[in-house]
Design a protein that fits this description.
Two copies of one chain form a homodimer.
Chain A (H helix, E strand, L loop, with lengths): L2 H8 L3 H9 L6 E2 L5 E2 L2 H15 L4 H11 L6 H35 L9 H7 L3
Antiparallel strand pairs in A: 1-2
Helix pairs in contact in A: 3-4
The first copy, chain A, binds a DNA duplex (30 and 30 nucleotides) through α2.
Chain lengths: 129, 129
DNA sequence: GCTTGACCTTCCAGTCACTGGAAGGCCTAT
DNA sequence: ATAGGCCTTCCAGTGACTGGAAGGTCAAGC
C-alpha cells in the first residue's frame, strides 16, 4: 500500500502522513524504489492518530496516546490524565470564545450596518465604556 | 514616550508593539538616538488594536478596522460585515470545540483511571463503535 | 522503445501572531 | 569609567501542517 492509498484509507492528506513520519509518529516501510509502503498496522496507527487529532489532542499528546495504546502494561490512569488535561484546555477555550461571541453578538446587533459612519463596534474598540 | 512606557500603557508586550510596526499597523516616530517615540495617537491606536485582538479579530481584520476607525467617511456596514464574519468564525469554533468537549467528557467519565490497562478512551480511538 | 501522465521522492518556504535570544548601541547614576 | 538598564536589529522557533519546485518511477498505449 503506497501513500495515496494510505491517504484514502485514513482520510489523511498524503502530506500529513509524510509529516507524521518526519516527526517520528509512524515509520512506514520502504520499497526497493524508495516508495513508502504501509501495512495494516501502519493504517491502524494512522487511523488512531486521525481520531485523536479530530478530538483536538495536540500531536505530542497523540504520540503519548499512541505509545500507551501499544503498551499492553499501560495504566488507564495515564491515558485518562492526558484526556482530562486536554478537556480542561478545551473548556478554557470554549469559555474564552463564548465571552468573545457574546460581546460580538451584542455589538453586531447594535450596529446599524448602513452607509453612515456612526458605529458602536468602533466606539467599543476605541473606548472602554 | 518610549517603547516600555507604551507597553505599560497599552498592556501589550514591547515585542508585540515592534511586531505591529514591522507589519505596518502603526508607525511610531523616531528620536535622534533611533529610539521609537509614541504619541497619544499611537497609544490610542495600540489600545484599539489590543481590544480588537482581545475580541479575537485576526491581525488583518484589525488593520481594516483601524483604517475604518480613522476614516470619518466610513460606512458602518463595512465594520459590521467584518465583525459578523468574525462572529461566524467564532461560532463555528465553539461548535467544533463543544462537540470535542462532549465526547471527551463522556470518555473521561467512563475511564476508570486506575492501574489497569483497559481503557475506553483508547478503545474509542482505535475503533469507531 | 518511447512517450505521456500519474504517481512518488526530497527539500524549502509560507502560514499566524507572536516570542525568545543574541549582539551590540545608548543613557543615567555613581 | 563603569555598571545596569534601557534601546536597537536580526534570526530562529512555535504548531501542524500546506504549497510548490525539481526530479525519479511506473504503467499504459503507440
Amino acid at each position: 500500500m503506497n501513500i495515496s492509498q494510505a491517504a484514502e484509507a485514513t482520510h489523511l492528506p498524503a502530506k500529513t502522513i509524510r509529516y507524521y513520519e518526519d516527526i517520528g509518529l509512524i515509520t512506514p516501510d520502504r520499497g526497493a524504489n524508495g516508495y513508502r509502503s504501509f501495512s495494516d498496522t501502519h493504517i491502524h496507527q494512522l487511523t488512531f492518530l486521525a481520531r485523536a487529532r479530530a478530538l483536538g489532542f495536540p500531536v505530542e499528546d497523540c504520540r503519548s496516546l499512541l505509545a500507551l495504546w501499544e503498551d499492553r502494561k499501560r495504566a488507564s490512569a495515564d491515558v485518562r490524565k492526558i484526556a482530562q488535561e486536554h478537556l480542561g484546555a478545551i473548556e478554557t477555550k470554549i469559555t474564552d470564545l463564548t465571552a468573545m461571541r457574546d460581546t460580538l453578538r451584542h455589538l453586531v446587533k447594535t450596529c446599524a450596518g448602513d452607509d453612515r459612519p456612526d458605529c458602536p463596534i468602533l466606539n467599543s474598540l476605541s473606548s472602554s465604556d
